[in-house]
Amino acid sequence: MNCGDFADYVANLGTFKSRLALSIRPFIKTERLTYKELQERVYQTAHFLASKGVGSGDRIMIIATNSPEWMELFLGTQLIGAILVTVDAASSLATVLRFIEETQPKLVFRSRHLHPDLGHQVTTYAVDGLRALIDQYPRTAPDIAINGESPGLIVFTSGTTADPKGVVLTQNNLLANISGIRRTIDISADWRLLSVLPLSHMYELTGSLAVLSDGASIYYLSRVTPLAIATALREYRITTLLAIPQLLVLLLERIEHTVAEEHKAWLFNAASKIAGFMPFPMRRLLYGGVHSRLGGHLTLIVTGGAPIPIEVASAWENMGVRIVQGYGLTETSPILTVNGLKKRMLNSPGRPLFNVQLRIADNGEIQAKGPSVFGGYWHNPEATEAAFTADGWFKTGDVGRLKDGWLYIQGRLKFAIVLSSGLKVFPEDVELVASKNSVLDAVCVVGEPQADGESVLAVVTSNKSDEEVDKAIAEVNAHLESFQHIAKWRRWPNGDFPRTRLLKVDRRRVQEWANSSVSEVKTKTSSIVGKRDPLLDVIRLSLGKPNAEIGEADRLSDIGLDSLRRLTLIALTEEYLGISVAEQNVTPTTTISDLRKLLCEGSRTEVSRPLPTWPFKPWVRLVGNGLRETIIRALLRIWVKMDVEGQDNLQDLELPAIFIFNHTDDFDGPVIYQAIPHPIRKKLAVAAADDVLHKHRILALVIRLFYAGFNLSRSEPYMPSLEYISQIMDDGWSVVLSPEGSISTNGELQPFKSGVGLLAVELGVPVVPIKTIGLCGTLPLHAKWPKSHSHVKVRVGQPIKFGNDGSYDEVTEKLHQRMLML
Amino acid sequence: MIGVDLVNISEFEQQIHLGGKAFLKKAFATSELQDQRVHHLAGLWAAKEAVIKAAGAAPQKMTEIIIVFDSSGRPHGKFGPEEFEISIAHHGGYAISVACIVKE
C-alpha cells in the first residue's frame, strides 16, 4: 500500500471482508464490526457529514472515549477532505470551549456523558448515536475528490496553562507514518490489540490505523479501569498492547503482588534467574501462571510516551513478552524511531523509520525531517517558525545521540539544567538514580536559578520524615557524578505530582512552583495511579472534584456524597481498590476514617477466575469429540434406548443456538447431546454447575474434554457466567444448559432461572427446548453406576427466537411453558 | 405513607459512567436493567428513593427494592413484604417519582 490518501486506505479495509475489525462490549452483548461493515459505516458517515454541509477544510470536533464510532468518524472525516479536531475526553469545559473558539468546528461529536451543556453554542451530536444518524445513507464510497496533502487532523499539545498549540497533520503525514511503521514492524492479521490509551493522542490513533491496515482486530473498553483491563486481557485473549511505561510498571506490580499472595514468590524469583537463557515460547511456559492471568496470548507490548526503566522492560521480556519501544512527538505523526520485533534494544527507542531522517544538532538536539513531519501549527505562525531550523528540520526539543543508527535519548532540552560551570545536567539522569530509592515515592528534578546559572533542585514526594529524605538524597548523590549532585530538595506539598494525560510528571508546573515563592499549589490532575492515598483519590473521582480537600473526620454527607454517589463510591472501590464493602455500612454519617476501617475489613472483590479455554481448542475438540462419539455413544447404547422425535425442527436452525433441557438425571447431558444432530454437536458446549465442577475434579475434566463443558454459577450473581456464554456464542458455539438449575427430584419441571430470558433477549439467538421423558432413575443423584436399562423418549421442540424488546421474565416464563407443553 | 424523589438525569448519567457495571448491578436488579436508557434508569432510581421515604426504612441493598411494570406500563414497587403504588415522570432534564404504600 503506498501513501495515496484515505480513500485508498478505506478501500483497502474492504479486502479483509469478514475479519473482525473493531469490538466493544457496552453491557453484556459484544458489538463486533467486521472490516466490510466498518468500511460501509465509514462510507455512510462520510455521506452523512457531507449532507450536513461539511466540506473540504471544514473542522469537526470530537470529544469522546474510544469506541468504534470514533474510528468511523475519523475515517469518514478524511473521506470528505475535512479536518477532525481531537480533544481529550478528560478535558475541562473551559479547555473545550477554547478549542472550539480556535478551530470553529461545524459540528461537535461527544460522548453522551461529557459536557452536556455544549449544545447551546454549536451543533452537537452524541457519538454513540452515530449508527442511528447514518442509517439511511448509502454504503458506497462518496464521489468526493480529496487531496492527500490537505490537513486531516488537528491535535492540541499541552494543557491550558501553557499555550496549547494545534498540531496540523495532513493525510499524507499519517499515511507516511503508517507506511514507515509497517516497514519496521511486521503486523499480523492475527493480532488482537486492546485499546487502552485515548485515540485523541497520536500514539493510539496511528497505532490503530497501522494495525487496521493489516487486518488485525482492535478491542475497545467502554471504561478503562484496572479491573476492566485485566478482564479484557483474558476474555479477548489479547496478543498486543499499546502501552505507556507507567501501565507496565503497574501491571508488573500487580503480578508480583499476586505472586506474593499466592506464596509463589520463590518460584517466581527462581524462574527469573533462568528465563533470560530460554527462548521466548519456553519463557511463556515457565511463567504459565502469569500468562494465563494475562489471557495466555500476550506476546507483544509496544511502549512509548516516556522512557521505560530497563528493569521493568527486562522483567517483561523475561516473562516472554516482547517489549518494543518507540519515540516520537505529536508533530511527527508521531513515530520517529521504533524497535523491530526481532532486533530490539531495551535501552534505546529504536532506529529511525525508513522515511524519517534524523540528525543531531550542535547543542545535542534531535532534529527530524520527512513526509510524516507536520507542516505547522493551527493559526500560529510564530510557533510554527520557532519549531523549525532555517534549513527546514523540525526541532524536537529532545537531546540525544545516534550510534550505529540507534537513537539514545538523554532528556528534554528545555529542562536541562545549565550549571554556572556550563555543564548540563539532565533531570532524567538524576531521576533515574533517585527512582531506585525506596524512601522517595517520586522525584522531579528542576533547575533553581542562581546568580550565574542554575543549581540542581530535587522536588520529592514521600511520606517519610525529613531526616529520612535527607539521608535518601545523600544516598542518591553517592551514585551520581559530582556535577549532577542534588544541591537542595523540597517537598511537593500536595499529594502526587501534577501529571499529563499520559501520566508523565508535568515538569513545567513543578518548575513554576519551585521558582515562585508561592508555596500553595493547585493540582489539576489527580492520579489514581499515584502512590498517594487511593481511598481519597477514589472519593475525589466519585465527586468529580480532583482537588477536594477531605479530612479524616469528615462525614460522607458533609463532603457531598448522597445516596447515589455513595453507591458509585462502593462500585469504584471494587474496581480500583479491589475491595468489596457492604452497602449498609456506608451511610451518610460514615466518616472517612470509618471508611478506611471498613476497607481493611472488606473482602477482596471476586475477580472472575479465568475460565479454562483449553476445551475449546481445535485439537482438544478433535480428540474429545472423537472419544465421545465412540466410547460414550457405545456406553449410552448399552444403558439407554433413545427414541428421538422432532429432529427435523432443527433443519433450518440458525446457529449458534441455545438448547435448553429439563434436568431429571445426572445422565441427561449425554442423552441430550446425542439427540442433537451431528453438525451442531461439533461446536456445542455444555453448561455445568459451578459448584459441581469444583468439587468433582475428575468429572469436571471429563465434562470439559468430552462436552466442551464450562462453569455456570447456580447462585444469583451469575452475570460473569452469562458474559462468558455470550462470548463463546460470539465465537459460534452453541450452548446446552438447564434453566432449572438443579435436578428435579420428582421429575416435574421446576421454575426456570431468569438468566435464560436475559440470554435469549440480549443475544437474539434461537432457543430450542428439548425434553427427555423417562430418563429419571437411570443415574440418580448420588449413585455411581446407571441403574436400569431404560427406554427414553427425547422430544426436540421448535426453535423460538425472541425480539430484543421482550421482558426477560416474560421470555423465561414463555420458555417454561414451551417446555411444559412439549 | 408517601415519598417523593427528584433526580437530575445528566448527573445520574455521570454516576453510571463512573461506576459502570458494578454500579448498575448494585443499584438495579437484572429485570430492571432491561431498558437501559438513562432517563428510564434515573426514573427507576427516583422511584426506589421514593419507596424508601414512603416505607420510612432504608434497605440493606438497593436491589431489595424492585420496581416492576405491569402490562399497561404502570409501575409498582416492592420492598420486603410491602407493595407501593408508583408514578414516574420525566421533564426538563429531571426524573421525578412518587410512591405510596398500599394498605389493604
Number of strands of chain A: 34
Number of strands of chain B: 5
CATH superfamily of chain B: 4'-phosphopantetheinyl transferase domain
Average pLDDT number of chain A: 83
Helix and strand composition category of chain B:
alpha+beta
Predict the CATH topology of chain B: Ribosomal Protein L22, Chain A
Structure description:
The complex is a heterodimer of chains A (822) and B (104). Chain A is α/β, with parallel strands linked by helices. Chain A has four domains: 1-186 and 199-213, ANL, N-terminal domain (Rossmann fold, 3-Layer(aba) Sandwich), CATH 3.40.50; 416-515, GMP Synthetase, Chain A, domain 3, CATH 3.30.300; 534-604, ACP-like (Non-ribosomal Peptide Synthetase Peptidyl Carrier Protein, Chain A); 614-821, Glycerol-3-phosphate (1)-acyltransferase, CATH 3.40.1130.10. Chain A is 36% helix and 20% strand. In chain A, helix 2 (35-51) packs across helix 3 (68-79), helix 6 packs across helix 7 and helix 27 packs across helix 28. Chain B is globular and about 40 Å long. The two termini of chain B are 13 Å apart. Chain B is 36% helix and 34% strand. In chain B, helix 1 packs across helix 2 (38-55). Chain B has 104 residues and is an alpha+beta fold. In chain B, strand 3 (75-79) and strand 4 (82-91) form a beta hairpin.
